[in-house]
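Quarterly update from the structural biology core.
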Amino acid sequence: MDTAIDLFAEKGFSGTSIRDIANAMGVSASSIYHFFGNKEGLWIAILRYSVEELPAQLREVCQLDMDPVERFELLVRTHLKYSEHHRRESKILLIDEGMLSPEGQRINRKLQTEIMDIYLEQLQILKDLGYIQTPYLKVAAFNIFGVLNWVLRWYRPGGKLGEAATYDEVINFIMQGLIGSRDRKAK
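Predicted structure, tokenized:
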């Protein structure tokens, strides 16, 4: 699956053919069709193998008995670490849904909805405690996802700013946008 993941991440879903994957793996295209049915079947197998664990990890963070602001920061950090550890797989989650069958779209949306619901729940807690003022929590969540997903495009391990420092900067940026000063207390 690693070869398919690499090609999907590099060339996109529509830019990658079963023949490309088969050639890179040194196998026949028919063997891929035999195991996965089609390109989307392979994509779904990759999604299930690598990305479906993210909501479970995020839910674990949400169960922690800790300060809600710190818990939200840990939620974002967990998301960042997971996405970085599964960088290629996370990129293929962001494919154009229009390229997928209705079943593929359903699976993709289900996963994205699970993640959205986790964030909305935690944002609502922060709002209820007076940390967040916006009435548009879904817009806030989409903005957070925009930042997190963009990190996948520009961050390179081994760069001038290490992983932990990069995550701190991203989290600080998100938290400043949500609650302003980190010293701000709930009302």
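Residues 102-128 form the longest helix (27 residues).
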